[in-house]
Design brief:
The complex is a heterodimer of chains A (110) and B (111).
Chain A lengths: L8 E5 L4 E6 L8 E7 L6 E6 L4 E2 L4 E4 L5 E6 L8 E8 L12 E6 L1
Parallel strand pairs in A: 1-9
Antiparallel strand pairs in A: 2-7, 3-4, 3-8, 5-6, 6-7, 8-9
Chain B lengths: L2 E5 L2 E4 L5 E8 L5 E7 L6 E8 L2 E4 L5 E7 L2 E6 L8 E8 L5 E3 L3 E5 L1
Parallel strand pairs in B: 2-11
Antiparallel strand pairs in B: 1-3, 3-8, 4-5, 4-9, 5-6, 7-8, 9-10, 9-11
Classes of the chains: A mainly beta (110), B mainly beta (111).
C-alpha cells in the first residue's frame, strides 16, 4: 500500500498558485518527501524533495509541516503546461519497494 | 551524468507471444532498479525491484518475470503474453541519494 494519500484531482486557474496537498502520517525519520509529475505517456519528472525544512527551486516550493505528517507542493504561477498527474512519495535509502500512490490529476484551466 | 535507457518505446504483440523489455542505466553503479506498470488513468504499480545482480523481488504475482544479468541492466520478460498485460511499462532506478529516475516508458499493446 502507498504510504501517502492525495486528492484524486484538482483544478486551478492559469496564472494562479496551485497548492497540492499530501498526507504521509506514517513517515519515518529517515524518509524524504519527494514530488514528481507525469505528463501523459511519459516517465515521471522530478520536481522537488525535502526532509523537514521547506524547500524552493525553479519549479516549485515544498512546505512540510513541523510534525512531517503532511506537505504541500506549490506551483506559484500555474501554466497550461503544468497539467499533469502529481505524485507525492516518501523515500529512504532503505525503502527498496518505492511504492507510489495514484497521485493527483491537476488540471490548469485558462 | 546519470541516464536511463528503456526500449522499445512502443510494442504490439499477439496473445501468447513472448516479451522482453530492456532497461539500462549509465553513470552510476549498484543502483536499485524497478519495473512499474501503469494502466490507463491509474497510478504506478510496482512489479519488480532489484537491489543487486541476480536479486529480484516480485510485488505482484503474474506471468511476468524480471532478471538482472548485469549491474546496470534490468529485463522484464514473459513467456506468453495475456491481453491483460497491455499497459505502459516504466523502468526506474534509485541511487543512494534517494532520487528516482525514470525511463521514457514502453507502451505495450497485446492483441
Amino acid at each position: 500500500d502507498a504510504k501517502t494519500t492525495q486528492p484524486t484531482s484538482m483544478d486551478c486557474a492559469e496564472g494562479r498558485a496551485a497548492n497540492l496537498p499530501c498526507n504521509h502520517s506514517t513517515i519515518s525519520g529517515n524518509e524524504y518527501v519527494y514530488w514528481y509529475r507525469q505528463i501523459h505517456s511519459q516517465g515521471p519528472q522530478y520536481i522537488i524533495h525535502g526532509l523537514k525544512n521547506n524547500e524552493t527551486n525553479e519549479m516549485a516550493s515544498l512546505i512540510i509541516t513541523e510534525d512531517r505528517k503532511s506537505s504541500t507542493l506549490i506551483l506559484p504561477h500555474a501554466t497550461l503546461r503544468d497539467t499533469a498527474v502529481y505524485y507525492c512519495i516518501v523515500i529512504s535509502n532503505s525503502n527498496y519497494q518505492l511504492i507510489w500512490g495514484a497521485g493527483t490529476k491537476l488540471i490548469i484551466k485558462p | 551524468s546519470q541516464t536511463i535507457h528503456q526500449w522499445p518505446a512502443t510494442l504490439v504483440q499477439p496473445v501468447g507471444s513472448p516479451l522482453s523489455l530492456e532497461c539500462t542505466v549509465e553513470g552510476t553503479s549498484n543502483p536499485n532498479l524497478y519495473w512499474y506498470r501503469q494502466a490507463a488513468g491509474r497510478g504506478l504499480q510496482l512489479l519488480f525491484y532489484s537491489v543487486g545482480i541476480g536479486q529480484i523481488s516480485s510485488e505482484v504475482p503474474q506471468n511476468l518475470s524480471a532478471s538482472r544479468p548485469q549491474d546496470r541492466q534490468f529485463i522484464l520478460s514473459s513467456k506468453k503474453l495475456l491481453l491483460s498485460d497491455s499497459g505502459f511499462y516504466l523502468c526506474a532506478w534509485m541511487d543512494t541519494n534517494t532520487e528516482a529516475f525514470f525511463g521514457q516508458g514502453t507502451r505495450l499493446t497485446v492483441v
